[in-house]
Amino acid sequence: MRHLISPLDFSVEELDELLRLANDIEKHPEKYAHACDGKILATCFYEPSTRTRLSFESAMLHLGGQVLGFSDAANSSASKGESVSDTIRVISEYADICAMRHPKEGAPLVASEKATIPVINAGDGGHQHPTQTLTDLLTIYSLKGRLDHLTIGLCGDLKFGRTVHSLIHALIRYPGIKFDLISPEELRIPSNLHDEVLVRGNIPFKEVVRLEDALPELDILYMTRVQRERFFNEEDYIRMKDFYILNKEKMELAPKDMLVLHPLPRVNEISVEVDDDPRAVYFKQARYGVYVRMALILTLLEVEV
Ligand code: CP
């Protein structure tokens, strides 16, 4: 039995296979419409979500399976003091696979150690968000045709943004990847990621404050929101929240074939006027999230089609 807790739980070869399967699902959805007949997905979300929870549910429904779960810890027995370990032991009796989001880093890992069904980390605190990474990789692979030899600008809250942390871990395994880390000083990537992953791994990167300085050389611009829920005080959040706003004027500095990704939700960091630019692919990216989660469910349940 396999779980997905970290983006590194799959080798590059396994990831390639998963992305190919997701592409096939996109092209031939009818082939997969009954692949999970009789199977149940549990979504245990202790933190708010729109895309991750609903794309998992959409994925399982498109595979012919069914879903159950909770979308708020307050409506579960966690509010009465039940541990994640006990909850997952019970969920293992009700479902065949579980996607879990939790504000505490490591909670889905703890769950996977007690579960008798595959557990998927759907985001744990400011730590990792591996299925968003799968979504991001599928989007880049499908629209750029490769995952190697790319210059990627990661912009915004690089300190608390778990999608950025997971994406860096995943992308450094491909050759020719360069990063432009675009953030205010206070929101730079955590030092362990900086020192132990990028510096130690000899990955080319630079840290810049002005988005305008990075834009002309990027293949991909990955925008992120400032993570209000991870700030210790509101004043700091208010000072930081509108630090970057991507608008039409700034898009004129970018290459014609650059893609703009965003895990969403967006707050102010991308002006709505950018949405009509063909380079803005963040809503397409949300659709790829369904295909890749379908591929992930099939892979973890070892369903052959
Ligand atoms: N991208 C993402 O994780 O969105 P949700 O928080 O809405 O799930």
Detailed description of the structure:
The protein is α/β, with parallel strands linked by helices. The chain is built from eleven helices and nine strands. Helix 1 packs across helix 11. The chain is globular.
Please render the helix and strand layout as text.
Layout: H1 12-27, E1 40-45, H2 51-62, E2 66-70, H3 84-94, E3 97-102, H4 107-114, E4 119-124, H5 130-144, E5 151-155, H6 162-171, E6 178-182, H7 191-199, E7 205-208, H8 211-214, E8 220-223, H9 234-240, H10 248-251, E9 259-261, H11 282-300
What are the salient characteristics of this protein?
single chain, 305 residues, alpha/beta, five-stranded parallel beta sheet, four-stranded parallel beta sheet, 9 strands, globular, binds phosphoric acid mono(formamide)ester
Largest sheet: 5 strands, parallel
Silhouette: globular
Order of helical and strand elements: HEHEHEHEHEHEHEHEHHEH
Question: Per DSSP, what share of the residues sits in E-state strands of 2 or more residues?
Answer: 5-15%
- How many distinct beta strands? 9
What's the Cα radius of gyration? 19 Å
Q: In terms of per-residue confidence, which ranges show pLDDT below 50 for 5 or more consecutive residues?
A: none
Helicity range: 25-40%
